[in-house]
């Protein structure tokens, strides 16, 4: 498309829109829109630029970030916009105070005359490869189960001795001591100092951890540091330290950095505290709260006991008001007549039974006497039996000269047989014993 510039008419001022900003004058000023278009055309020629600085403002609105970058050597600032799609590709731990490098493209909004930069990439300075390795290590340790909640140990309710690993004369040490002693004045600390950054950080922290873990009186261990940028916190993501914490038998509390810091130590520790102050508050109970809780429990117990006693007393009074307990002798009186009748009836039954059985016994006795050999003998009969006990029923059983025992009604005597005698005869030789 061919563009035609307006033709200036002699003696007349050209239209404002037709005046290029560099050709403008007091008599022939350019328009605001033409000036903004010129500025935008000039800025668009810059393309993408890599810039280094410190984040001084980070505001998240509607999924987009609006912030500022400050030059490290001066007070110069630029404003930037980081759209949501780009934000998803940037590190999730970016925050105010971070030293970053960003790929930006200048934008000039003609309508508002607003100048800003759109970020297409942003990362920590010098941490690109380290952060990538850190994330791979995080995924590996998670796959091994070192971050599983099931393996984390419970902290004691009231530790007698707290092991503290921190930098010497650090604010973190003071914060932990001050807040713990405010909550429980009798708390006792065993402190091991270690470098909290640099090359000595990992070996000294591991040595302090092993020493405190071996101490029998240490109930919980706090590893504390007062925050810092990701570069200074890399020691607390070292694999050697993370595995040492996982292998410790004493519960370990991680109190590294602030809320936005997330070293690997936070994931493997039995408890993660956002700050050293938070660690002291979560490890040691508040004596005032515990006293209030004890008083509350005592009051609740007294109320329950009072209600229980009142209930039991009311139940007892209700039982005592019943006729059976108000006059217990009435139960005996009402039953005494029935008891007397039952006893009399039983006595009659027993008497009749005894009388019947007495008559029956007399009858049996009479029958027994009638059938008894003694009664027959008493009437004058006798029984003769040989010396071997055989009863003589036939005279032939006692031949002449045989010894015979004769039993009569009263006693017995011996006799000698003279043999058979004639029927009706009386010859016999008898010798009484």
From TrEMBL:
InterPro entries: Exonuc_VII_L, Exonuc_VII_lsu_C, OB-fold_nuc-bd_dom
Coiled coil ranges: none
EC numbers for this chain: 3.1.11.6
Pfam families per record: Exonuc_VII_L, tRNA_anti_2
Residue stretches of biased makeup (Polar residues): 24-33
Domain OB-fold nucleic acid binding: 31-123
Keyword tags: Cytoplasm, Exonuclease, Hydrolase, Nuclease
Sample GO molecular function, one term: exodeoxyribonuclease VII activity
Record bears the keyword Cytoplasm: yes
Location of region: Disordered: 1-33
Location of the protein in the cell: Cytoplasm
Domain Exonuclease VII large subunit C-terminal: 146-339
Leading EC class: hydrolase
Reaction it catalyzes: Exonucleolytic cleavage in either 5'- to 3'- or 3'- to 5'-direction to yield nucleoside 5'-phosphates
Nuclease is among the record's keywords: yes
Predominant location: cytoplasm
NCBIfam families: xseA
Family: Belongs to the XseA family.
Complexes and interactors: Heterooligomer composed of large and small subunits.
Biological role: Bidirectionally degrades single-stranded DNA into large acid-insoluble oligonucleotides, which are then degraded further into small acid-soluble oligonucleotides.
UniProt-recorded name of the protein: Exodeoxyribonuclease 7 large subunit
């Amino acid at each position: 498309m061919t563009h035609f510039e307006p033709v200036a008419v002699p003696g007349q001022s050209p239209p404002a829109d037709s005046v290029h900003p560099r050709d403008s004058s007091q008599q022939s000023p350019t328009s605001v829109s033409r000036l903004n278009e010129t500025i935008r055309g000039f800025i668009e020629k810059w393309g993408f630029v890599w810039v280094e600085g410190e984040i001084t403002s980070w505001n998240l609105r509607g999924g987009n970030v609006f912030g500022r970058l400050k030059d490290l050597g001066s007070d110069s600032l630029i404003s930037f916009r980081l759209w949501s799609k780009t934000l998803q590709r940037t590190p999730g731990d970016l925050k105010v105070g971070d030293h970053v490098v960003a790929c930006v493209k200048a934008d000039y909004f003609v309508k508002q005359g607003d100048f800003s930069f759109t970020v297409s990439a942003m990362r920590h300075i010098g941490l690109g490869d380290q952060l990538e390795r850190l994330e791979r290590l995080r995924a590996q340790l998670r796959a091994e189960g070192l971050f599983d909640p099931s393996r984390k140990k419970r902290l004691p309710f009231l530790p007698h001795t707290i092991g503290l690993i921190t930098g010497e004369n650090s604010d973190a040490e003071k914060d932990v001591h001050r807040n713990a002693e405010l909550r429980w004045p009798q708390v006792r600390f065993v402190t091991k100092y270690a470098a909290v950054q640099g090359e000595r950080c990992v070996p000294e922290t591991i040595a302090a951890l092993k020493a405190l873990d071996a101490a029998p009186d240490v109930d919980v261990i706090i590893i504390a540091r007062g925050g810092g940028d990701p570069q200074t916190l890399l020691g607390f993501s070292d694999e050697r330290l993370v595995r040492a914490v996982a292998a410790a038998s004493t519960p370990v509390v991680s109190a590294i950095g602030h809320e936005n810091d997330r070293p690997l130590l936070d994931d493997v520790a039995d408890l993660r505290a956002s700050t050293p102050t938070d660690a002291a508050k979560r490890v040691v109970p508040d004596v005032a709260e515990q006293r209030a809780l004890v008083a509350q429990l005592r009051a609740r117990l007294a109320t329950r006991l009072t209600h229980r006693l009142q209930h039991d007393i009311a139940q007892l009074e209700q039982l005592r008001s019943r006729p059976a307990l108000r006059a217990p002798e009435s139960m005996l009186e009402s039953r005494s007549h029935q008891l007397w009748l039952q006893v009399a009836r039983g006595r009659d039954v027993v008497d009749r039974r005894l009388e019947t059985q007495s008559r029956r016994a007399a009858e049996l006795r009479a029958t027994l006497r009638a059938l008894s050999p003694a009664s027959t003998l008493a009437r004058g009969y006798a029984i003769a039996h040989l010396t071997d006990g055989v009863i003589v029923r036939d005279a032939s059983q006692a031949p002449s000269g045989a010894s015979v025992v004769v039993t009569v009604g009263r006693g017995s005597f011996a006799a000698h047989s003279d043999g058979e005698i004639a029927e009706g005869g009386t010859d016999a030789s008898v010798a009484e014993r």
